[in-house]
Design a protein that fits this description.
262 residues, six-stranded mixed sheet, 14 strands, 40% helix, 23% strand
Length: 262
């Protein structure tokens, strides 16, 4: 009998439809979520409508329906997000946050909902360099970054000389501001994950391009105050969405089909 029960349980976990019927139900609980709205196509303000949209918003809508929560979004800068979530000012945070051990000391992460690779985003007419070594060799070239982000550390330690105060790194409060500086010629390089970079290139009508080889991979997760009881239900929803193809469908919608400005 115990073997039969175990076998039935294993079948239930492996079957996405049956497993979803046993999703946690949080009864419509309000969940206040910190967002940045500057990381297309994950989350950004649609220039045509002024509405905040993106992959993560659609994912949270789906998660909310599956586990019974009511998302409430509040905008905050990137550099303040992790400390604010850690302090319990928000129930959750999202903006393409790389899962890292040092951050996990401050906040709890969900399971990864996406994996991406770091790429070099440059202007479409850039011919002075085509890889990280070429950028590093020219002292006149400048890089945009947000302090404390994965692109910042990759720029410091994998592209430049390991000096976090290197004057060739120009700091910006938002990722979008760094891309705008790239467009206007104030900087020459923005490091970003491949998903966001592809979104900017697609929307740029040739003004931007990606050069060089990828610089490793990173996994994205949602963040929560340490010990949050939301982690397990949201992980259950992420697992179900992976199993039934919902995450793949979101990837197609936002990385292949969506055209910014249309």
């Amino acid at each position: 009998m115990n073997r039969l029960i175990a076998a039935l349980a294993a079948c239930l976990c492996a079957h996405p439809v049956l497993a979803e019927s046993h999703m946690p139900d949080l009864g419509g609980r309000e969940v206040v979520i910190a967002v940045e709205n500057a990381y297309p196509p994950l989350q950004f303000v649609d220039p045509a409508t002024g509405k905040a949209i993106g992959w993560e918003y659609d994912a949270l809508t789906e998660i909310a329906a599956r586990i019974g929560i009511t998302p409430v979004y509040e905008a905050i800068s990137w550099d303040a997000m992790i400390p604010a979530v850690s302090d319990g000012q928000f129930d959750m945070g999202m903006t393409g946050i790389t899962i890292r051990e040092d951050r996990a000391e401050m906040v709890d992460f969900s399971d990864a909902y996406m994996r991406s690779e770091m790429v070099m985003l440059v202007r479409g007419d850039e011919e002075r360099f085509s890889d990280a070594a070429g950028f590093a060799a020219d002292p006149d070239l400048l890089m945009a970054a947000q302090p404390g982000t994965t692109p910042f550390y990759v720029g410091v330690y994998e592209v430049l000389d390991g000096d976090e105060a290197n004057p060739r790194i120009k700091l910006f409060e938002t990722f979008g501001a760094g891309v705008q500086a790239l467009r206007t010629g104030d900087v020459d390089l923005v490091l970003t994950d491949g998903t966001a970079g592809a979104g900017y290139v697609e929307a740029s009508d040739g003004a931007l391009k990606i050069v060089g080889e990828t610089m490793g991979t990173e996994d994205f997760g949602f963040i929560f105050p340490k010990g949050s009881e939301l982690v397990a239900p949201i992980n259950a929803a992420i697992a179900a969405m992976k199993a039934d193809g919902t995450l793949d469908a979101l990837n197609r919608t936002w990385f292949l089909d969506y055209k910014m400005g249309e």
